[in-house]
């Protein structure tokens, strides 16, 4: 009981209403081959519960998956964690009151959610031929793809999954807004962000690094800023309150 109560992060805690049948074990098996070396897997005689538990996806004391296990491999994570999805809106202008051109609730296990976000980023970026100095012309995007990708991945990785509020990905005519539920966490403050960071969800962060989706070592925000600058976009604008982190990314000027 003390061990369960001492889990420091929400993703490490047991999802007490769930059972191992709520996990897509085939997905875990594929992940295990990314996270564990082949010799260890070949010599492994442990039960599936022990294998999941060794990577913090199952709580043996309670006999159920952890929140990280449900988020990464759950058949229906929203059943247990109602806010664990991304609300996507594409609007024709600059006002939320307008009728959206496209909208979706992007849900499922985290790997599926992140793969769909990657596809939506690729679809929304427009590339045009522009002068790049002298008589030279260059194809330049209105947004650098990898900057948006880094910011979205970070929003999903660092959000508060104990909240019923979804991550928001809103595309306006002149800018994009990404809102992550949960304010700054741990050692991160308004003054030191993004040079200091703490991991609200360290198990999820490690899993996303294992899958090649993020760099775990506080690099994503710096890379996004550098890519925006290199592409000629204005600097990203960050807004914080006790319940959310919002980033606004503006289109490259014509």
What does this structure look like?
This protein is α+β, with helices and mostly antiparallel strands and 254 residues long. Helices cover 35% and strands 19% of the residues. It contains 10 helices and 10 strands. The strands form 3 sheets. It has a 6-stranded mixed sheet, covered by helices on one side. It has a two-stranded antiparallel ribbon with strand order 1-2. Strand 5 and strand 6 form a beta hairpin. Helix 7 packs antiparallel against helix 8 and helix 8 packs antiparallel against helix 10.
Highlighted features:
10 strands, 19% strand, six-stranded mixed sheet, disordered N terminus, elongated, alpha+beta, 254 residues, single chain
- Strand order, largest beta sheet: 4-3-7-8-10-9
Mean pLDDT, as a whole number? Answer: 87
Q: Measure the end-to-end span.
A: 60 Å
Low-confidence region ranges: 1-6
SSE arrangement, N to C = HHHHEEHHEEHEEHEEHHEE
Strand content bin: 15-25%
Structural class: alpha+beta
Total beta strand runs: 10
Overall 3D geometry? elongated
Tally of helical segments? 10
Largest sheet: 6 strands, mixed
Q: Please give the share of residues in helix.
A: 25-40%
